[in-house]
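Consortium newsletter contribution from the modelling node. Members have asked for a concrete example of what our holo predictions look like. Here is one, prepared for the thymidine-5'-triphosphate complex that several groups have been discussing at recent meetings.
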Amino acid sequence: MVLASGSPRRRELLTGLGVPFTVQVSGEPEDSREADPARLAAELALLKGRAVARMAEGAVVIAADTVVAAGAELLGKPESAQENEVFLRRLSGRTHEVYTGVAVLSGDAEVVEVARTAVTFRTLLPQEIAYYAASGEGLDKAGGYGIQGLGMALVERLEGEYSNVVGFPLSVVTRLLRGAGVPVWGTLGAGAE
Ligand SMILES: Cc1cn([C@H]2C[C@H](O)[C@@H](COP(=O)(O)OP(=O)(O)OP(=O)(O)O)O2)c(=O)[nH]c1=O
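And here is the predicted structure:
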């Protein structure tokens, strides 16, 4: 079993499922012209998975990609504290969507699914925006915040799965891995689906 992701959050969550795995990252940049956020998350997860599956013959490979959409705008990883502030002003007092595509590849079989969570931020004071951006926590994260860290103080409401916002929707991960014959929590979960 191979995790095709350099994300420490994904590593931690997969470890919690009791699945032995190694990490392999292709290093190839993924590229897509897809504008629809759900389809983009699915496509990028599949591209990451395929790149690693080529190097890890025979293994089950899991990959994921998280896309944050504020209306028609896609918010990637901010490149500076200033850009992080722009993102936070865009998210303040509004609801945005987080999509994570999960791809599982096993031999010739490829399955991909997307989870969606709607996240509502409370209205942030300019000082709060400056403080959070200066913390640096949001810099390596899509949307410019980490709900698992200090970023949880920005959030007022969630609709959907929490682990999806962190980048690894565990309900989808569990179902797809079991479908590929990987025992999650020591079981294939017969009769549970
Ligand atoms: C919104 C949000 C995103 N994120 C993270 C999840 C993902 O790691 C990251 C989105 O970037 P991704 O491109 O999905 O993943 P990655 O670059 O971290 O890792 P890899 O491509 O090797 O799989 O943002 C959080 O950790 N918390 C949050 O609240």
